[in-house]
Amino acid sequence: MGMSQYDVIIIGGGAAGLSAALVLSRARRKVLVVDAGAPRNATAAHMHGYLSRDGLPPGELLAVGRKEVQHYGGEIVDGLAGDSRTGFDVTLAGGQCLSARRVLVTTGLRDELPDIPGLRQRWARDVLHCPYCHGHEVRDRQLGVLGGTPGAVRYAHIVRQWTHDLVYFTPPATLTDAERTQLTVRAVGIVEGTVEQLVVDDDQLRGVLMSDGCVVPRDALFVPPTFVPTGHLLAAIGCDTDQDGWATTDPTGRTSVPGVWAAGNVVDPRAQVITAAGAGSAAAIALNADLVDDDVRIAVAGYEQES
């Protein structure tokens, strides 16, 4: 590949990155997608709520997307991108240096889970985080919510939409009187104490073991995870972030660093797959317009030099 000059290098080949690559390659831009191959939803068997693709395994969406991008001449390489100090030189893990007029970062986020034995192993199977992705599949079953974090009570009320049998697990002395009343009037069971571990039998979640030895039978457990942006590249480039460490962008994905854009879960923790794809598309259209402005400026400067 040598020291190729691309119009846009996209770092991250998930829904946001591939969607942007599709729009840009169709706009006759020279595009490279660098993908580390570790999508956040890899453990999920099916993706839901994506119009026309409901129930599709996530890996299939990416495989189809890659083919579409390559069909229009977009290039995809597997590998990690190192720091892009200027935002325009991207170093691959193998040491190759590539340059681009613009960079789009779509590296996503990772879900940090509480340190409870059994949780990580059951992740995206019967330990779930997104009721919109998985609630329908476990509807009317015995569900639990692991509470105690800010916003967890509200999250439990949302999960309640899918079942009449919901238990809210929370450390002692964390509920306000108002929260306790809200849960009680909606028939949400409250279990106060320390969760010791999950009870799994025959590869199925059976219940939640409390530190007092009591087991609360449950079929699935919803856990509001802590979202951590995979945003080390954005930080290295020096993009402005909010108080929680998320890079800030304008509505089209433009960061505070000229020429650097970001889209999808790396800037929006609440984005579903379909939302991330939409954000990638919007960023691509804005990026192309920005490149056109650049093309006009360069052409005018060249013309004025000649005349």
UniProtKB/TrEMBL annotation:
Catalytic activity line of the entry: [thioredoxin]-dithiol + NADP(+) = [thioredoxin]-disulfide + NADPH + H(+)
First and last residue of the signal peptide: none
Domain FAD/NAD(P)-binding: 6-277
SUPFAM superfamilies according to UniProt: FAD/NAD(P)-binding domain
Gene3D superfamilies assigned to the protein according to its UniProt record, in alphabetical order: FAD/NAD(P)-binding domain
Domain of life of the native organism: Bacteria
GO molecular function: thioredoxin-disulfide reductase (NADPH) activity
Pfam family, one: Pyr_redox_2
Flavoprotein in keyword set: yes
Keyword annotations: Flavoprotein, Oxidoreductase
Record's keyword annotation contains Flavoprotein: yes
PANTHER family registered for this protein in UniProt: THIOREDOXIN REDUCTASE 1-RELATED-RELATED (PTHR48105)
Protein name in the entry: Thioredoxin reductase
Taxonomic path: Bacteria, Bacillati, Actinomycetota, Actinomycetes, Micromonosporales
Name of encoding gene: trxB_5
